[in-house]
Amino acid sequence: MPTAKLTPILAHTFSKYNQQIAKINRIILPKFFSLLENLPFIKYDKEKQISGFPKQMTVGKYWDADTMMEETREHIYLEINDNFKMRELDKGDLEQFNALLQYAFQVTTYDLFQTGWEQDEIKYAKRPILEEAYVLGWFYQEKLASMIVVYSMKVNIHDEIMDMGGITGVATYPEYTGRGLIHSLMKHALDYIHKQKMPISFLYPYSIPFYRKMGWEIVSDKLTFIVKDTQLPKAVPVDGMVERVSLDSEDYHNVHSYFALQRHGALIRDALSWEEYWRWDNEDIIAAVYYSREHKPLGYVVYYIANEIFHIKEMVYLNIEANHGLWNYISAHFSMITQVQGDNYSGETMAYLFDDSEITETISPYIMARIVDVREFLADYPYQVQPEELKLHFLVHDAMAPWNEGDYMVSWHDGKTICERVDNNQSINVVELSVNTLTTMLMGYKRPTYLYEHEKIQTEYYMLTWLEKLIPVEKPYFSDYF
User: Fold this and answer.
1) 384 to 418, 448, 470: CA distances (angstroms)
2) C-alpha distances out from residue 446 to 49, 85, 220, 451, 474, Å
3) What is the DSSP letter of 415?
4) Within 10 A of 35 (CB to CB), how many other CB atoms are there?
5) pLDDT the model gives residue 437
6) CB-based contacts of 159, cutoff 8 Å, min separation 6
7) Is it true that domain 372-470 has CATH number 3.30.1050.10?
8) What distance in Å separates the CA atoms of residue 134 and residue 111, rounded to the nearest whole number?
9) What single DSSP character describes residue 178?
């Protein structure tokens, strides 16, 4: 029996239907269950009774099933400055948390409409952040004035999977600026990340100079490209084919997981990371997976089409066959589009790979990072070589995290890296630099010789040869936004 083909209208209808189902699973059901959770007979939990529950940093209201009495625990404040008090946020602060996010990042009702959100949906979608992340804020007379969010994440550092503290939600109402609220929140956030044994932190900067003062440095770029319809690559024969899939497709997620495990700089996405990845995308977003002849998923493209433009959010491929297959798929939209626009996070320009290389590419800094625990990071770092005859001294300056300030001697023995903090009186094999420069160098964003030539490193010239040998040559790939 022949297989029926969907018309474009029906295909779009089914696509919208699948997206709505995914949205119900992702947003509506968690909202429903969170409402149930607030009912007294659902929320009762013997461990949460005040008499038997250890004191926490956040307030909570719980119902005792026997007395039906509401109990309230006192907040514990980390700092108090006149009428300003710093504490961790909890579920009871959800309304204020969401209001500050929307105000500071200029998320209007129209923006929510454009991306398919409603006010209540975005509020409850953000609730898991208060449950799973560390959220710290300054309150002025019980009103949230300023805050910061720390996600517990994992990232690939040259094939070594490291714990990473992702900083986001850095926001202050304008009437409270100029009081150093963010600076103090950032110090507490760094201390928290350090105590949680996350050796590195990432963030998306709203001001690069602001975060540079606190030790963060650029470690990856976003390259935006525009390809005209006449510049699209010609079809290359491949054995496999592309299939459109749902946004929660296991094959799609598995391709990213496999890619992230072998690509330096990539985020290892968990459930919360995936939620943040989709947070502000419109409902017309589509995922398409390239399958080999054996139906093995080898790549994907995430995109939407609007106003005759094919917009690529992300394109990932595990081999060259998948790369050709995905571009064949994109080029098959030739009659529908006038150009392709997209973002490339590889750190390498694309023009060389096109027959017509006169495409438009623009580059902009994307993610910043900073090493939070220098000793642990240097000890775990996957150096390219392990010369047992070398004892290397990193003299690091870090005003924001004083535990990092000092001289770290790195050596190797029997295939293991040894990192020790020593007295600052060494005269040979010393590399003096800020924590910013150390981060961007070890992340591979800028090479040691480049940093030396621009006076970011103080060392003897012969040490550059060792540094170039030790540090892997690969720029970070980071495509996430949180």
Assistant:
1) 15, 14, 5
2) 54, 41, 10, 7, 10
3) T
4) 11
5) 98
6) 262, 264, 382
7) yes
8) 27
9) T
* CA-angle at 59, arms to 54 and 64, nearest 5°: 70
Which residue is associated with the tokens 């590195």? 200
Give the per-residue pLDDT at 232: 96
**Domain 222-365, CATH class in plain words:** alpha beta
What is the rounded distance in angstroms from the CA atom of residue 454 to the CA atom of residue 443?
A: 18
**Annotated domain spans of the chain:** 7-37, 77-198, 222-365, 372-470
pLDDT of residue 142: 92
Look at residue 107 in the predicted model and tell me its pLDDT: 54
pTM of the model: 0.81
pLDDT value at position 10?
35
Q: Are 421 and 432 in contact (CB under 8 A)?
A: no
Q: Which two tokens stand for residue 242?
A: 């592309």
Q: Is there a common fold for 77-198 and 222-365?
A: yes
Q: What is the DSSP letter of 27?
A: I
Give the per-residue pLDDT at 130: 72
* Neighbouring C-beta atoms of residue 355, cutoff 10 Å: 8
Cα-based distances in Å from 164 to 7, 172, 206, 400, 416: 46, 24, 20, 18, 22
Average pLDDT, the chain: 84
The residue among 303, 304, 317, 337 whose CA lies nearest residue 232 is 337
- Residues forming a β-bridge with 84: 81, 140
Burial 319-329 (b: 16+ CB within 10 A, else e): eebbbbbbbbb
Residue that the structure tokens 């297989």 belong to? 3
Identify the pLDDT of residue 59: 38
Q: Which residues of the chain register pLDDT less than 70?
A: 1-73, 107-129, 280
* 3-class secondary-structure state, position 272: helix
Q: How far apart (Å, rounded) are the C-alpha atoms in residues 244 and 19?
A: 12
How are beta strands 430-434 and 160-172 bridged, if at all?
Answer: unpaired
Q: How far apart are CA 63 and CA 111, in angstroms?
A: 38
Q: Which fold does the domain 77-198 belong to in CATH? A: Aminopeptidase (3.40.630)
What would the two tokens of residue 477 be?
């790939």
As given in the structure block, the two tokens for residue 253 are 């997620």
Nearest Cα residue to 311 out of 336, 292, 294 = 336
